[in-house]
Specification:
By secondary structure, this protein is an alpha/beta fold. The chain has four domains: 3-110 and 121-152, Mannitol-specific EII, Chain A (3-Layer(aba) Sandwich), CATH 3.40.930.10; 169-280, Response regulator (Rossmann fold), CATH 3.40.50; 287-470, no CATH class; 484-647, no CATH class. 56% of the residues lie in helices and 9% in strands. A six-stranded mixed β-sheet has the order 8-7-6-9-10-11. Strands 1, 2, 3, 4 and 5 form a five-stranded mixed β-sheet that branches. Strand 6 (169-175), helix 7 and strand 7 (200-207) form a beta-alpha-beta unit. The longest helix has 40 residues, at 440-479. The radius of gyration is 30 Å and the shape is globular.
Length: 651
């Protein structure tokens, strides 16, 4: 789609009458409403004015691009307006505005529309183009001006300005809050000025249609410095250790030469990521198979955890309320929903908990195949949750399907397979389904979701059969654990929580624990979940014990951090111990693992159950034996703390 397709001749205003900013906006919106482009004046104006409140869309040099992606818009449209006298629009350069492009994009605007709007931004930065528009006298002449400039705008969007031999190369990221106009204006301005200065540049855009021209690890490595021209958060850890200047996106448009000069003259501060990590130092294409698996898995887990935590604690509170208020012995099967208050909490918690598997599978697929994979992943997770499978669909006489569709849920394992399956299916569709350029927009919002859901769903009906059997066998095994078996499992998952204190091993144990909780919460909770939380609470508390008992082996700063770790440990935030583990891994990590494994084993031996997936001391009442649980955590912390302190060298 070209920008000419969005410039509607019948909505153009070649003689704008308004003399103030708001009056000009009102006049343009009124015309859009009268032409049937916008259904509600107030709704669309609210969107326009909200955008203006963030930063003026008066870009300078007499041009303004007010815009809104809005529910009141029926059809993506760009209204061109021209004022003979100019309007005080509070532009970036303070000059009057005489050329207006009001962009109206529907909420569901596809990537094709957004790409066309990005092209509009680039046209307006072409030398002399705005002056040509000031001379037009008819709508046809406006379209003709864009047609004439089209050949000049066919450069590859991913093109990198090549410096002369021996000159510098820099990288940049542009992003505005809506991702429609300023993002691409800043990109074009940076490319243009860099070319004039003989500097190589690659610009990544974080627009409404996603990340464009993404910077690779190699790009960042060879760059002299980084320019961030953005009004919203962008991926920063990857720039760790690079000279970096960060400014609003408006500076990327109007102060471009200044930003580039700061990098060239070594005046930019070196950026240090908060975690000191290299972030995405390795580009996606260089990830190992295991690295890619872990990346996609953690994408799903991180999005799933809020649903697990929020829903799980709400359900656990329902059981707690019923226990406090009392339930007759003959009604124990209704524990958790006997009293009205408990039933309300359980209903809300179950609603949140029900999203766990669809969200997990959906975001695994999203990590693999981006936005087109999301819906297929959600469907795969929902099928895993319901247990729907071939052979589980019953048919009544006449061939009509009955309501007997539910099989045996395949649980977390089924959702895991389903998420990767959905991502793989959609990636294959993206690669092999070819459509004319005019249908590219329909491909992302119609063809890929339809085929992705269809193929993934049909495959999941088969996948659910073996995965349901595995999930049932695993749950039966865990349910039957007692005595020595529970001790060994508690020891294992408790120790895993201390191996990397928030890393992949820790997360694997935690996800396993939450998976057992989903199946056992109606039975009073999960021993595995209790062991996991106990193991995760130990390392930060062990740090406090060590800094308290062995003061001569820690600096004052470390002792102060030890006090902070009390709160971290009691809150089940294992990451509080990371600085100590990273500074002295040979002594710290084995010490922490011993105490965490011991705490987990003791919990398993006593058969203590936990009904909440997180919360530490704040959900201690949701364990089956709060006092004994606290004692086991303290035992693990003291053992780990003494070991860690004894092994440390005197400072």
């Amino acid at each position: 789609m070209k920008i000419q397709d969005l410039l509607k001749k019948d909505v153009m205003l070649l003689d704008l009458k308004a003399t103030s900013k708001e009056a000009a906006i009102d006049e343009m919106i009124t015309n859009l409403v009268n032409k049937g482009i916008v259904s509600d004046f107030d709704t669309f104006k609210a969107g326009i004015m909200n955008r203006e409140a963030q930063m003026t869309t008066g870009l300078g040099e007499g041009v303004a691009m007010p815009h809104s992606k809005n529910a009141a818009v029926k059809e993506a449209t760009v209204l061109f307006a021209k004022s003979a006298s100019g309007v005080d629009y509070e532009a970036l350069d303070g000059a009057p505005v005489d050329l207006f492009f009001m962009i109206a994009a529907p909420d569901g605007a596809n990537d094709t529309h957004l790409a066309a709007l990005a092209d509009l931004s680039k046209y307006l930065l072409k030398d002399g183009f705005a002056d040509k528009l000031r001379q037009v006298k008819s709508a046809d002449e406006v379209i003709a001006a864009f047609d004439a400039a089209e050949d000049d705008n066919k450069a590859d969007a991913n093109q990198t300005t090549t410096p002369k031999e021996g000159q510098d190369f820099i990288v940049a990221v542009t992003a505005c809050t809506t991702g429609i106009a300023h993002t691409y204006m800043a990109e074009e301005s940076l490319k243009k000025v860099a070319a004039e200065m003989g500097v190589g540049i690659k610009v990544e855009t974080n627009g409404a249609s996603g990340v464009g021209n993404k910077l690779t690890a190699e790009d960042i490595k060879r760059a002299k410095g980084v320019i961030i021209a953005a009004d919203k958060a962008v991926d920063m850890p990857r720039f760790n250790g690079k000279p970096l200047v960060s400014r609003p996106v408006a500076d990327g448009i109007k102060k471009t030469e200044e930003l580039i000069t700061i990098i060239l003259n070594d005046q930019a501060d070196v950026y240090v990521a908060k975690d000191g990590a290299q972030g995405e130092a390795a580009s996606e294409e260089k990830l190992t198979l295991g690295g890619a698996f872990y990346k996609h898995l953690m994408s799903g887990v991180s999005q799933m955890l809020p649903f697990v935590i929020g829903g799980g604690i709400m359900i656990a509170l329902a059981f707690l309320f019923d226990n406090i208020m009392g339930v007759p012995k003959d009604q124990l099967s209704n524990l958790g929903s006997y009293h009205e208050l408990a039933a309300i909490f359980k209903g809300i918690g179950s609603a949140a908990f029900g999203f766990m598997l669809p969200v997990f599978a959906g975001y695994v697929a999203y990590s693999i195949a981006e936005k087109p994979g999301l819906v297929s992943g959600f469907v795969a997770g929902a099928i895993a949750s319901s247990g729907l499978a071939y052979g589980k669909v019953a048919f009544a006489a006449g061939g009509e399907a009955t309501a007997s569709l539910a099989g045996v849920p395949s649980g977390f394992l089924g959702a895991l397979v389903g998420g990767f399956l959905a991502g793989w299916v959609v990636n294959c569709l993206k690669k092999y389904v070819k459509v004319p350029r005019s249908l590219e927009g329909a491909k992302s919002i119609l063809i890929l979701p339809l085929l992705g859901v269809m193929i993934t769903g049909l495959l999941m009906l088969a996948v659910n059969i073996p995965m349901s059997a595995i999930n049932t066998a695993l749950n039966d095994f865990l349910t039957g654990l007692s005595g020595s078996s529970a001790v060994l499992l508690g020891l294992l998952v408790g120790g895993m929580m201390a191996v990397d204190m928030g890393g992949p091993v820790n997360k694997a144990a935690y996800v396993f624990g939450t998976g057992t909780l989903a199946a056992s919460i109606a039975d009073g909770g999960s021993v595995v979940m209790a062991a996991v939380m106990a193991g995760g609470m130990v390392p930060p508390l062990a740090v406090f014990v060590a800094t308290l008992l062995f003061k001569d082996k820690f600096t004052q700063e470390e002792r102060d951090s030890g006090l902070t770790n009390i709160v971290m440990g009691l809150s089940f935030i294992t990451e509080g111990a990371i600085p100590f583990g990273a500074a002295d891994p040979a002594r710290a990590i084995p010490s922490f693992m011993v105490g965490s494994a011991l705490a987990g084993a003791l919990v398993g031996l006593a058969g203590i159950k936990l009904m909440a997936p997180h919360g530490g001391i704040f959900v201690i009442a949701l364990t089956s034996n709060p006092l004994l649980y606290i004692l086991f955590v303290l035992i693990g912390a003291i053992v780990s703390g003494i070991l860690f302190g004894a092994l440390r060298k005197v400072k």
